[in-house]
Amino acid sequence: MKKSKKSQKGVTSNDKNKGMGKEKEREKKSSSLESGSYNYKMFSFFNRKFKINEVEPPSDVNKAFSLFTDEGSTHMTPEQLRRFMSVHQCEVSTRLEDAQNIIEQVVNRRHHITKFARHTLNVEDFFHFLLSDDLNGPIRTQVHHDMSAPLSHYFIYTGHNSYLTGNQLSSDCSEVPIIKALQNGVRVIELDLWPSKDEILVLHGRTLTTPVSFIQCLTSIKEYAFVSSPYPVIITLEDHLTPELQAKAADMITQTFETMLYYPESDLTEFPSPESLKYRIMISTKPPKEYLEVRSKDASEDESSPKDDSDASESDQEDEDFKSLQAGVSGYKRLITIHAGKPKGSLKTALKEVTDPVRRLSLSEHQLEKLAGSHGLDIVRFTQRNILRVYPKGTRFTSSNYKPTIGWMHGAQMVAFNMQGYGKSLWLMHGMFRANGGCGYVIKPDILTRSADELFDPKATLLPVQKTLKVKIYMGDGWRLDFKHTHFDAYSPPDFYTKIFIVGVPADEAKKKTKIIEDDWCPVWDEEFSFPLTVPELALLRIEVREYDISEKDDFGGQTCLPVPELRTGFRSVPLHDKKGVKHKNVRLLMRFEFV
């Protein structure tokens, strides 16, 4: 029977609290590892000792090593490693120099050799290489998609209420979450602008959120816009300003961003490409209200009425003020690259209209679900040229998120998320935008951009299987280095199991689970699962490790989410992250991916 857990969990190596307590814990852990066992105390007087099992290469790894080395040899040469990478791992572009560099890094790490003295790998070195996610990760880390298509052909990493530090009703507004989002690769930042006398503030209107100044947000965006990606940043503004403050906002934007700011000379009939907009910043919002044009018309009508001298003088001053205001608002309107706004007619009509110029339409998650049921093809067609932004419903007060796949299935480029709202939905968002080197732009699959007669129908259910993904999970390691030995269980080593999910179109969604490995910090599962996929282009592989507890809720052991189209085949080291999406220092799984 499983032993009960401690109610207070230990801290991980990712925690900010790094005091003397952690140093002492490391010393204890080191001495425990050297002794080859972990000691657990029960009821303060029983001492339970558990042997630390050495991490050994799985049989498949040993077979691969033997297959690509000479018979009877105990070492793998650079050329043999190059062949292994090319044939087994399907990395056909691997050069001999690349293999030599891998060997040098592995030998230096394992044997602490500062000068490169050995030019081969033994089987333990080979295993170490396979478990190194920086050398043998599950997806490519470079930008490799075509970046020359129009913006409407990409999924774009998009934030919602990017300035909020917590919930939607009473949390602080700050530039800090904006900075964090940009550092994590988010490319669309949303700011809500509200007037405060002569100042412009950013806050969630009609709530108790404390404001942050607009200029502070702009300055932070300028400083951090391109620290993680060179591709364009789009600022979506929810504008509640007076015409006077719109003119002031335009001055702030132009003076802050200067040449970084992109805006076209005329309305766009097609969006430019991410490649052409490298290191540029764009504004997207509703154009200023047209009442200025009505005011201008009223003024011209007043000219026909007789006026005395005092009236004429006052009228001249009003005209001057109005012309100045009109120029300021016109300047604000000129800065808007991506025009947004509600359709003049019904949503259903707007989706069917062929608009020129192109524009952005915003729908709540609820509106999208409702429209998708009857007008799915129209939404896909609309997003081929225009941009669709989907945002969380207003009742998500805790900054939770919705399932993003319905937006992506319909071609929505901007699936806006609360980046501070941790949870499984946000893990999916992280997974999607690990694609294409994490640059924040992921090109849509052809099924969402091809001609109308071949258009993808998100409601289709009887689709043929395009390919099957085979996932083999061998083992896991690293928890003993990143966690206290009593973190999962006060009285014994953890009992880990892994859950594997496919998330995508409804026909492809699936869930598998490994057996539970009891009392082992380095669990070996050695299990394989198959996932038939009808739309692999939109599939995500979500992996979650749990620690079994018979008396309480199972403990969380780490998670990750990976875009299926980006998976590299062969043996791969898959690093795990905490609940907030922060990568653990040492925790990873050894897995194998294969498409058949």
TrEMBL record:
Keywords: Cell membrane, Hydrolase, Lipid degradation, Lipid metabolism, Membrane, Transducer. Its main location: membrane. Residues 15-31, 292-310 have a biased composition (Basic and acidic residues). It catalyses: a 1,2-diacyl-sn-glycero-3-phospho-(1D-myo-inositol-4,5-bisphosphate) + H2O = 1D-myo-inositol 1,4,5-trisphosphate + a 1,2-diacyl-sn-glycerol + H(+). Residues 362-448 form the PI-PLC Y-box domain. Signal peptide: none annotated. Residues 1-33, 292-322 are annotated as: Disordered. It holds the Pfam family C2. Its cofactor is Ca(2+). One of its GO terms (molecular function) is phosphatidylinositol-4,5-bisphosphate phospholipase C activity. It is found in: Cell membrane. This is Phosphoinositide phospholipase C. The gene is LOC107900444.
